């Protein structure tokens, strides 16, 4: 299995809009993907509400790549999302 950790730092004041994109677009789209084993999404505690994390676990690399495309090491960015985010980070780990 493969773990993909996506982190986003959101522009100050854009948290509600980013929450909406995650809840209405990103999470439903991800949950439909074949090979997705689990998905956990959250935002920082009160001192860092502008930080978001999405941890997805995939059956294998091929399933994850079917979602991300050939640029699997980059963020999958939804319409309207880029304008709300200061920076994205994506990391991948193989389970053992």
Strand line-up across the major sheet: 2-3-1-4
Task: Report the radius of gyration as a whole number of Å.
Answer: 13 Å
The amount of beta strand, in percent, is 35-45%
SSE topology string? EHEEHE
Q: Major beta sheet, specifics?
A: 4 strands, antiparallel
Percent of residues in helices: 25-40%
Structural class: alpha+beta
- Uncertain ranges: none
C-alpha end-to-end distance: 8 Å
What is the number of E strands?
Answer: 4
List the helices and strands and how they pair.
Layout: E1 2-10, H1 15-31, E2 36-43, E3 51-58, H2 61-68, E4 85-94
Antiparallel strand pairs: 1-3, 1-4, 2-3
Provide a quick synopsis of the model:
With 96 residues, this protein is an alpha+beta fold.
Describe this structure in words.
The chain is of the alpha+beta class and 96 residues long. Helix content is 26%, strand content 36%. The protein has 2 helices and 4 strands, in the order βαββαβ. The protein has helices spanning 15-31, 61-68, and strands at 2-10, 36-43, 51-58, 85-94. It has a 4-stranded antiparallel sheet with strand order 2-3-1-4. The mean pLDDT is 94.
